[in-house]
Give the backbone structure.
Amino acid sequence: MGHIAARDIYRRLGHAIDNTPVRTPWNDAFHAMLRELYTPEEAELVVRMPYRPSSMGRLEQVTGMPRARLQPLLDRLCDKGLVLDIREDGGHAAPATADNDDGCLYMISPIVIGIFEFTMMRTGGALPSKRWAELFHDYMFGDRAFLDANFGDGQRVSVMRALPHQETLGDHVEILDYERAAALVEEQRTFAVGLCSCRHEKHHLGARQCDVDMETCTSMGSGAEYLIRHGFARRIDKAAMHDILARSRDLGFTLSADNVRQGVGFICHCCGCCCNLMQGIRQWGHAGVLVTSSFIARCDASLCNGCGLCGRACPIDAVSLPVPDGGRKRDRRCVVDEAYCLGCGACALKCPTGALRLHPRQRKVLHPADSFERVILQSLERGTLQNLVFDNPNSRTQEFMRGLVGGFLRLGPVKRTLMGEALRSRFLDAVRRMAG
C-alpha cells in the first residue's frame, strides 16, 4: 500500500502546483519530476500550504504543523528553490509583528519562474543535474501539454518580457525607463549573478551550441538577495552588472526581464540555441511565451544589402531573406514577421547598413505595473485566480467557493471583459483594495 500512498501524495502535489499562476498539467513526466525533487514529507507540507504568501503563524494554523516541524522543512524547501521566502526589507527578515511573525512570507514555487530555474541554478556537491535536465525537458517539451496549458488560448501575460537594445532604436524614438536595461540597473543597489538555468540544462542535454560562460543569469533587489541567501547566485556590484549587459550587447543576445514596469527583479541574457522561451516560440509557435517589447523591427529595403546577418542573429527566426520571384539571391531583402518579432533589436545590432531599426508598435503591449498586477492577470488568464482569493487548500468551504468563483471567471465573456482595456484597471484596483 505504501507505493499507492506515495503516488497519491505526488498527485496531490501536482494539483497544488497546477493551481499556481503557471499551469502544470499532470502526466507521467511531471510525476517523475516531482518524485525526483520532493521527498514525501516535503510534498505533504506543500500540498497543505496556502496558495498565496503566508506568515509562519498562518502556516501553523492552516497546515496544523507546529513551528518546530515547519521551520526545518521550509528551510530545506527554500534551499532547493521549491518554496520562496519573501522578505521585502532589502531581502532580510523584518522585525516580527503580530500579523507577520518575523516579516517573512512563504509561498509555493511555481514551475517558472521558480522550480525549473532554481533547480538548474544549484551548484556544489554531487547533484544529479543531468537527470534534472532530462526530466524538465521531457515535461516542458516532450509534447504540447505544458505550453498549450499556459499559452494555447492566446494568453497575453507571461512572466518575462523582451527588452530592446537602446542602440537599435530609430531616430527620434523615445523609450521609457522601464524598457531601458541600464535604467533598471541604476534603480537598484543589490545585484547577483548565477548559472543560466537554460544553458545549464542544454549543457547536460548535449544541445548547447554556444560557448558563452554559463554564469549569466543576473538579478537585482530582493530577488538577488533570495538567490544569494540560498546559494543560487553570488553577489556582484553595479559595475559588473553593466559589464554583463555590455557583453550581451556585443554578443547580440536578447535581454529578457521580469514582466513588470516597477520593481524588475532580474535580467536574462538569452541566446536562441539555449533559451527555453525561444524554443517554445520556435517549436510550438506560442508567441506569448516571451512578451514583446513596445517596439518592433522594420527594414528599410533601400538600405538592405541582403547580407543575411540579421536572419542569423534573430533568436526565433522571425527575420528572413526570401529571394524574390524571378530574382537572384543578391536581390533578396530582409522581411520581418511582425506576428513573432520580439522587439529586442538583436537583428539590428548585426545590421551593417542600418537598414533594420526598432520602431514603436502600433498596438499597445500589456506590461503589468508590478508583480501584484502580473500575478493577478496571469492567474485570471489561466483560471487560477480563485486560489489567491480562497487560498486554504484544507478548507471544504473554500474548496466549494474556489469551484464556484473559478467556474464564473473561466467563462469566456467574463475573462475577456476583465482583461479588456475598459475594465482592466478598475478590476485590478478592486482586487488590490481587497488584498490590502
Notes: Residues 302 and 345 are 19 Å apart (CA to CA).
